[in-house]
């Protein structure tokens, strides 16, 4: 396997007596589109939360781009270029779409009080660059005409697109998507997948996504990681995974081998 | 110009209304901090009266007890208030919103009881005075000039204080509005909407909440100096938690997430609160005093019923948030 952008070893997270993540070990290959699947309660979202710093891990090792990010804070992990989205979209509802986008830009001196006082020009200059990039991305995602609307007025599918576009404002090298296709219509869903492939090919962005739709997983992922009961039980290309006995038992259930 | 003086007199209590105008400005500045915290950042600061007390007492003590000049004393008092904001914010801003609110009330009460009991420094309930010589020297020539135009009050520095207070207030309204339009203001609003989203985009919400609280503390300190000058004598009772809640009343009347709304809110609140002193009703005076606050409550209920976003607030922002 090629070089790993993310490598997780024996990662554990407990909530009281429940092992949400139980000694999970996995690698995500740089430049890949990797799917993370597993039955409900398998610990997929918990794994996302621990890896991205939203939950504090109990034990294990997490390395991103070769550096340990174990127990680092969520914002500092995002700043390194590893950005996530949420299962339930977190559009900043009472802010316009364009502000949602511009908020996400890195290296904006205007976000620091000291820079606002000492070098106000730097913030304004960066603001122009940021706005241009935000509008370009909105254009790509076909959201530009909604730029000045409150994010709350967007449909569920548009919010998913906005959340991906907003994550891209951070200029990430690695994007984690938590059920990007859930609750959106097939047209928007296809567009989202197209964007994902486009970004991977054009900018070399790596993707890890949690998904329940097996057609999407089988057709769009290079690799599939399967979790059950907090641990990784299988890992490989989609063709192998669909034949894997453990996966069929744990996840696809009785006649699921056909899916 | 004499005409103006006559109309003032015809209105009855010129001095009284000028004093009310000063209070309206003072509580306007006080509420700008609450607007930044509650309206824009989404943190419920119930301790603003404590920051105001630190500003007022800090200035009074540094001038009267420590013999500092007036301006350095104001700077020093603001430094104390901002430091207090950091000290209270560092441990308690990590708490959930409701626990944070309780912690800030406790902080404000600690400040008030300290002022009451640290008699050697604060004068306790006897009060602290004689800190405003520099102000009176500054205000006298202004008062004389105004008197030439027929504008005078029996307490000469009151009209200059009204002017200074409202100039500061209006300046701060514009300054805060401008700050809110910067990228910094954008992050702060995003913190109000969803801290996790902000975190996921690489910004630390805690830092912004702490800065927001510190700026509010600074605004509280400024309102504290001006209140001290209006009162002449500082007394712990002027910093009851009640005053923070009057600030929230102003905030809700004027509308959340709009600094200009604070000016509207404070004018409405103080007009209702003070005009009702002159109610002529066939009941004893102390009952009229109680009716005043009932009327404030009634106005608040009517505003929330018919214009829930407040006079200047934006309805979409409130409903979508």
Order of helices and strands of chain A: EEEHEEHEHHHHEHEHEEHH
Task: Give me the Rg of chain A, rounded.
Answer: 19 Å
Per the CATH scheme, the topology name of the largest domain in chain A is: Rossmann fold
The major pleated sheet of chain B works out as:
none
Shape call of chain B: globular
Strand proportion of chain A, as a percent range, falls in 15-25%
Description:
The complex is a heterodimer of chains A (259) and B (321). Chain A is an alpha/beta fold and 259 residues long. Chain A folds into two domains: 4-91 and 173-258, Rossmann fold (3-Layer(aba) Sandwich); 94-153, no CATH class. Chain A has helices at 44-51, 74-79, 97-103, 113-118, 120-140, 156-169, 186-203, 214-220, 238-241, 245-252, and strands at residues 4-15, 18-29, 33-37, 59-64, 67-68, 82-84, 174-178, 206-210, 223-228, 231-236. In chain A, strands 6-7-8-3-9-10 form a six-stranded mixed β-sheet, with helices on both faces. A four-stranded antiparallel β-sheet of chain A has the order 2-1-4-5, with helices on one face. In chain A, helix 3 runs parallel beside helix 6 and helix 5 (120-140) packs across helix 6 (156-169). The termini of chain B are far apart. Chain B has one domain. Chain B has helices at 2-10, 14-41, 48-64, 70-92, 97-117, 119-122, 133-148, 158-180, 183-193, 195-200, 205-231, 241-254, 259-275, 285-306, 315-320. Chain B is mainly α. The interface between A and B is medium-sized, with 40 and 26 residues.
């Amino acid at each position: 396997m090629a070089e790993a952008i993310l490598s997780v070893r024996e990662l554990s997270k407990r909530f009281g007596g429940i092992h949400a993540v139980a000694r999970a070990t996995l690698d995500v290959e740089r430049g890949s589109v990797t799917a993370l699947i597993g039955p409900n309660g398998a610990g997929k979202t918990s794994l996302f939360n621990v890896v991205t710093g939203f939950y504090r891990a109990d034990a294990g090792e997490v390395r991103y781009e070769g550096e340990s990010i174990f127990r680092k804070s969520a914002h500092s992990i995002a700043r390194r270029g590893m950005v996530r989205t949420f299962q339930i979209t977190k559009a900043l509802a009472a802010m316009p779409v364009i502000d949602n986008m511009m908020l996400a830009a890195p290296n904006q001196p205007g976000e620091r009080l000291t820079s606002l006082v000492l070098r106000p020009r730097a913030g304004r200059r960066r603001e122009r660059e940021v706005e241009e990039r935000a509008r370009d991305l909105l254009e790509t995602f076909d959201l530009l005409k909604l730029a000045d609307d409150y994010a709350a007025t967007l449909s569920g599918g548009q919010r998913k697109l906005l959340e991906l576009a907003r994550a891209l404002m951070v200029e990430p090298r690695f994007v984690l998507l938590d059920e990007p296709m859930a609750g959106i219509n097939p047209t928007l869903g296809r567009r989202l997948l197209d964007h994902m492939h486009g970004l991977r090919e054009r900018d070399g962005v790596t993707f890890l996504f949690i998904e329940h739709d097996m057609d999407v997983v089988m057709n769009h992922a290079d690799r599939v990681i399967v979790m059950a009961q907090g641990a990784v039980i299988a890992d490989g290309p989609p063709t192998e995974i669909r034949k894997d006995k453990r996966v069929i038992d744990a996840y696809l259930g009785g006649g699921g081998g056909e899916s | 110009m004499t005409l103006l003086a006559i109309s003032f007199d015809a209105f009855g209590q010129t001095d009284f209304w000028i004093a009310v105008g000063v209070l309206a400005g003072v509580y306007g500045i006080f509420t700008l901090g609450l607007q930044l915290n509650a309206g824009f950042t989404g943190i419920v600061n119930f301790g603003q009266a404590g920051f105001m007390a630190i500003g007022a007492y800090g200035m009074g003590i540094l001038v009267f007890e420590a013999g500092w000049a007036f301006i350095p004393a104001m700077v020093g008092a603001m430094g104390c208030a901002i430091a207090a904001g950091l000290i209270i914010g560092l441990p308690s801003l990590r708490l959930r919103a409701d626990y944070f609110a309780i912690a800030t009330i406790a902080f404000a009460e600690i400040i008030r009881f300290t002022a009451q009991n640290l008699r050697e420094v604060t004068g306790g309930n006897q009060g602290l005075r004689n800190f405003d010589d520099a102000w009176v020297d500054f205000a006298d020539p202004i008062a004389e000039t105004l008197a030439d135009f027929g504008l005078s009050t029996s307490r000469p520095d009151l009209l200059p204080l009204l002017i200074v207070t409202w100039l500061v207030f209006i300046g701060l309204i514009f300054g805060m509005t401008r700050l809110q339009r910067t990228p910094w203001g954008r992050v702060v609003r995003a913190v109000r909407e969803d801290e996790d989203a902000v975190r996921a985009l690489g910004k630390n919400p805690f830092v912004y909440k702490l800065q927001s609280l510190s700026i509010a503390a600074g605004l509280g300190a400024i309102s504290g100096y001006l209140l001290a000058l209006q009162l002449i004598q500082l007394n712990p009772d002027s910093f009851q938690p009640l005053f923070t809640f009057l600030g929230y009343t102003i905030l809700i009347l004027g509308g959340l997430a709009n600094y200009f709304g604070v000016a509207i809110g404070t004018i409405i609140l103080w007009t209702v609160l003070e005009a009702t002193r002159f109610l002529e009703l066939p009941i004893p005076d102390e009952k009229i005093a109680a009716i005043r606050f009932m009327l404030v409550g009634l106005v608040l209920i009517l505003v929330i019923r018919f214009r829930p976003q407040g006079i200047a607030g934006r309805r979409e922002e409130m409903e979508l948030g």
